[in-house]
From TrEMBL:
Keyword Phosphoprotein: yes
This protein's name: Matrin-type domain-containing protein
Domain Matrin-type residues, every copy: 415-446
PROSITE patterns named in the record: ZF_MATRIN
Source organism: Anisodus acutangulus
Localization (cell): Nucleus
Similarity remark: Belongs to the SF3A3 family.
Listed GO CC annotations: spliceosomal complex
Any single biological process term in GO: mRNA splicing, via spliceosome
GO molecular function, one term: RNA binding
Entries under Pfam families matching the protein: SDE2_2C, SF3A3, SF3a60_bindingd, SF3a60_Prp9_C
Main location: nucleus
Amino acid sequence: MSSTLLEVTRASHEEVERLERLVVKDLQTEPPTNKDRLHQSHRVRNMIVQIIDTTYKLVDIYEDKDGARKDEIAALGGQTATGTNVFSAFYDRLKEIREYHRRHPAARVIIDTGDEYEQLLKEEPQIEFSGEEGSGRYLDLHELFNEYINSKFGEPIEYTAYLDVFSQPQKILRKAKSTRQYQEYLQKLLEYLVYFFERTEPLQDLDRIFSKVTSEFEEEWTMGKVEGWENNGRENGSAPENHTVIDLDYYSTAEELMVVGPEKLKEVLGALGLKTGGTIQQRAERLFLTKNTPLKNLDRKHFTKGSRKPEQNGVVAAPQVGDDVIEMALLEAKIRKLCDLLDETIVRTRENVEKKQALTYEEMEAEREEDDVQAESESDEDDQQIYNPLKLPMGWDGKPIPYWLYKLHGLGQEFKCEICGNHSYWGRRAYERHFKEWRHQHGMRCLGIPNTKNFNEITSIEEAKLLWERIQERQGVNKWRPDLEEEYEDQEGNIYNKKTYTDLKRQGLI
């Protein structure tokens, strides 16, 4: 009786509803410590997994591929395959129920499963962390650090310096990335970061995050704008790292192309294997030919002796990009994304390492023992009300920080940032750190201003706009100005700029 398909369906719906209520009830409780927060997150994650599994079972039942549900519903109405009438089916069913309860008398007792579900809220999932990870507060990258400093792509640096550079694989020279050792290093680093992220942030949907990273990466790769791998994967080929690339689509005539300057034109022509001599106009006209004409179709007279004709337009032809290169670039993109999500943990790890460097072995052992004792006594102190009349911020141990530390870091001082939507930051440290955080970066992007070091300490929208205008004006001074920088020579060998030469010639003086 209790195993009928309709009863299973009802019980499954009841289980889903109970678990949903438990999730809401658990999330309404604010965890006092980092350890409690982890336990809560993993409890909720486990309940969500149970809800998903039960829902899949319900979907299979409702799809009714074998027709069992349809037959059972028909049997309830007396429509059986043997052709029996409604009353015969009813009494047969009644007889089956009585026989079931005669064999299972305990089934008559109503068992309240509410207590069983409530026990889920008190469950403390086992989460494995190494001693260096401090219950998910710090990263443990020592193994990867040793691999980095002993590799060809790495450099001999301190562990604290490695914590600054491991999240920036795009800054490693491209020559050093063409090894199997580098690819294995990236895979190990990504594997560790994913494992750490799943343990500390179990409610985050990592598959959805990586799916978005992959789609953005594919778009940037096609355009040749992947950081550290610029101009790879473009339809027109790839340019060497040390050569300047000019996008000819922005210029409609050779005269417009002259504004980039003679040196840059010379550099690009040399990279393409074309002749670099002549006036600036001749160089621009020669380069402009490559906009609509494939380089292989250009007249041989435009190329230098001994050069090979590239097969693509606009940039130097290069070997086709392999799948290994694309895979490494995608691994780097995923690592950068995870490092952005774990930015606070990375900063906390660096601070912890620097603090340990100032401690002796005995002091570190005493601190570790104190942490163990504190972790054991946390459960007993949870029920006690925390006395905090000064409303001091809570530390990582769930207790108010000391007042002297509160004053030392200036946590009573409020800083507002107009670019962040007048968001408040308490303490100088949080204020300085926020310039690299997502909220400030988003505000700068909305203003159309790059978030560089020039704009540190600037929180006013008006000041940011004024500074950006000054920077643009200053950069404008370095642009090529033909009337002042293009040189002309008269018959006597005197050198003038274009403006002076034109004025003198107009007056008939030369």
